[in-house]
């Protein structure tokens, strides 16, 4: 049985999360609740849950301070937050599960189920936990991204990503040294995350690091030629935009 703790300084939110867990995940046992940094640290040390639903803004500080105080920790974290801020960006780049308030029951089920499905052995998860805290602490744009597959957690330098290709609900990352990493997430989410890092989506199925573009060929509707020789199609409605971008690059 998986044990869980709920950390939120709003009693109504804690009650809602507990009700949803009981309703949709009856095999998960809630072993405690807390509403502040101090009480959360005490609770998690005492109960040692496998799963923690953690709000970012709580009494006495943040959920990140709770994690920092418990480092190294072995439990799986699902953040629940109303704040679209740097903290949420750090969470996304670290591939950590999260739910945005107000809580939607479908999104809640999806996030908790994904957390359950990816309860990695602690030795594999620790690198991801460390990167989350490091990423948040720096308060700068991260230079790495966590790519989470069924077999492993990959910590990848963003500037080593040449391009990404979509295959329905999966995205393949192609790295500079020839490695391919396939993750179970849509290319749309990665396009949003990487838009500030010279990545451009020339076609609905592709996301390209402009640093690896050699030229744009206008023949046959248009396509990008990368430094490794790979040809990436360009949709007609994005052709002018990519030409303008490369002209200013």
Describe this structure in words.
The chain is of the alpha/beta class and 249 residues long. It folds into two domains: 2-138, Rossmann fold; 156-248, LytTr DNA-binding domain (OB fold (Dihydrolipoamide Acetyltransferase, E2P)), CATH 2.40.50. It is built from eight helices and 17 strands. The strands form five sheets. It has a five-stranded parallel β-sheet with strand order 2-1-3-6-7, sandwiched between helices. The mean pLDDT is 84.
- The SSE string, one letter per element, is EHEHEEEHEHEHHEEEEEHEEEEEH
Mean pLDDT: 84
Beta content: 25-35%
Question: In one word, what is the shape?
Answer: elongated
CATH class (first level) name of the largest domain: Alpha Beta
Please bin the fraction of helical residues.
25-40%
Keywords:
single chain; 249 residues; alpha/beta; Rossmann fold; OB fold (Dihydrolipoamide Acetyltransferase, E2P); 2 domains; five-stranded parallel sheet; five-stranded antiparallel sheet; 8 helices; 17 strands; elongated
